[in-house]
Amino acid sequence: xxxxxxxxxxxxxxxxxxxxxxxxxxxxxxxxxxxxxxxxxxxxxxxxxxxxxxxxxxxxxxxxxxxxxxxxxxxxxxxxxxxxxxxxxxxxxxxxxxxxxxxxxxxxxxxxxxxxxxxxxxxxxxxxxxxxxxxxxxxxxxxxxxxxxxxxxxxxxxxxxxxxxxxxxxxxxxxxxxxxxxxxxxxxxxxxxxxxxxxxxxxxxxxxxxxxxxxxxxxxxxxxxxxxxxxxxxxxxxxxxxxxxxxxxxxxxxxxxxxxxxxxxxxxxxxxxxxxxxxxxxxxxxxxxxxxxxxxxxxxxxxxxxxxxxxxxxxxxx
Length: 318
Description:
This protein is an all-alpha fold. The chain has a domain at 47-143: Serine Threonine Protein Phosphatase 5, Tetratricopeptide repeat. It contains 16 helices and no strands. The protein has helices at residues 5-50, 53-61, 65-78, 83-98, 103-122, 129-146, 152-164, 172-182, 186-199, 203-215, 219-232, 236-252, 256-269, 274-286, 290-303, 308-316. The longest helix has 46 residues, at 5-50.
């Protein structure tokens, strides 16, 4: 049979076209795979950078509370009940709240902190529950300090829960002492402040204890703490506050000369102390000299127009 060269040519052309098509298809697949992987890694990188638990922990580790706030918010937008995101969003909101100078902004952050931590607490792991309770107690404590409503009872509730569940934090007794004090639970406050002293002694803490002992009518105990501050403290503000309180105690005890001496010591450092002028007015009132008493109360009101004690006294002696 005669060999047909034309047929061979057609065969090779078809073969070359098939190989070329195969190469083209293979190349297209490689390009598609490469593009797919590139997109995948870009998306993965974007997720990790904006809304991943990995990024959340990294930012928390770096004390980037604003970053933690935003990252946890992204996660909660997709998964509203993600317990990790709820917990860290609550933590970040707390730290952002206490750093605000604007009271309204601080309130908003603290409200957000409380709402998220309460939700997180519902399904918190047993090992993490005490820490969430502790942070929730602190959030209520700071909300109490800037709010016209009272949240001290809730601060006490959650701090006591954290303490009962084994959470260790040096500041718990002091927060409890201050919260009890704001509720006029004087003896509970003294007990917590005394416990706080065993952990960390400070002049501020000593003054807080003295104030509570004074409120409880235990002047001798209050005086001992005030003497420690006056004799050892290097903070003039605390020393002056201690002298004012000591003057009040001396006045209540009828030691008018001693009280006046404390008040005058304050005026040597700060001639614009409304509390001192009010206290001097009380001394003169007790001594029967209402003319001098009213003069001192007027001085107090010139410095502090809404001084509650001076306002009341001036109203009483119209």
